[in-house]
């Protein structure tokens, strides 16, 4: 079954009145300068239901969810609960939806994140040492929908920093589509992966909330679901380099072409 993109006008309205950005507080930990925020109520319940229905129409059992795992060595396998990732997922090219989601969350992103300059924790030391500046370009149009049921999980990992058309991803976008009847399934950040006693911080799934966090060296996991189902949308937030070695790049405007 082919999964269509959403309508071009989806989310063509302001965020709900209760939308609010909150920084994840890593103070006093080994990652206190790292970036992660939640945007609560970024989408309404109805908008979440519409997005979910685009991949799983009500009453339609013919949905191409594939049960997959990623092993600790990064290999993709099927039906192996010993792996690092164990849950069904769908990947789909959905540029209408990705553009709409980026438009919705952009007003809630700090200016120092919309444009990365001397942002060593996010980019690493080399872009800063070269005088490079990166500007938020787009949410990658290839989105992944994950469905966690009882016993499903994603073990501790760091997200891969991807490259697309000369642009690099520095942030992960994660949208929670539901929470009713759900037990477990928190996104857990590890402040020191080398210390099993180090503090962890949990973000519990809440329908319509978005989690945005840096990909570089920020260890996290999708905790096991005990009851119900957790649906999320996952994507890469890409940046375009607009200043290289202190010199502005002609034609670089931070938007996708």
TrEMBL record:
<dbReference type="GO" id="GO:0005506">
    <property type="term" value="F:iron ion binding"/>
</dbReference>
<dbReference type="InterPro" id="IPR006620">
    <property type="entry name" value="Pro_4_hyd_alph"/>
</dbReference>
<dbReference type="Pfam" id="PF13640">
    <property type="entry name" value="2OG-FeII_Oxy_3"/>
</dbReference>
<dbReference type="InterPro" id="IPR045054">
    <property type="entry name" value="P4HA-like"/>
</dbReference>
<feature type="domain" description="Prolyl 4-hydroxylase alpha subunit">
    <location>
        <begin position="34"/>
        <end position="238"/>
    </location>
</feature>
<keyword id="KW-0479">Metal-binding</keyword>
<dbReference type="GO" id="GO:0004656">
    <property type="term" value="F:procollagen-proline 4-dioxygenase activity"/>
</dbReference>
<protein>
    <recommendedName>
        <fullName>Prolyl 4-hydroxylase alpha subunit domain-containing protein</fullName>
    </recommendedName>
</protein>
<keyword id="KW-0223">Dioxygenase</keyword>
<keyword id="KW-0408">Iron</keyword>
<dbReference type="GO" id="GO:0031418">
    <property type="term" value="F:L-ascorbic acid binding"/>
</dbReference>
<dbReference type="GO" id="GO:0005783">
    <property type="term" value="C:endoplasmic reticulum"/>
</dbReference>
<keyword id="KW-0560">Oxidoreductase</keyword>
<dbReference type="InterPro" id="IPR044862">
    <property type="entry name" value="Pro_4_hyd_alph_FE2OG_OXY"/>
</dbReference>
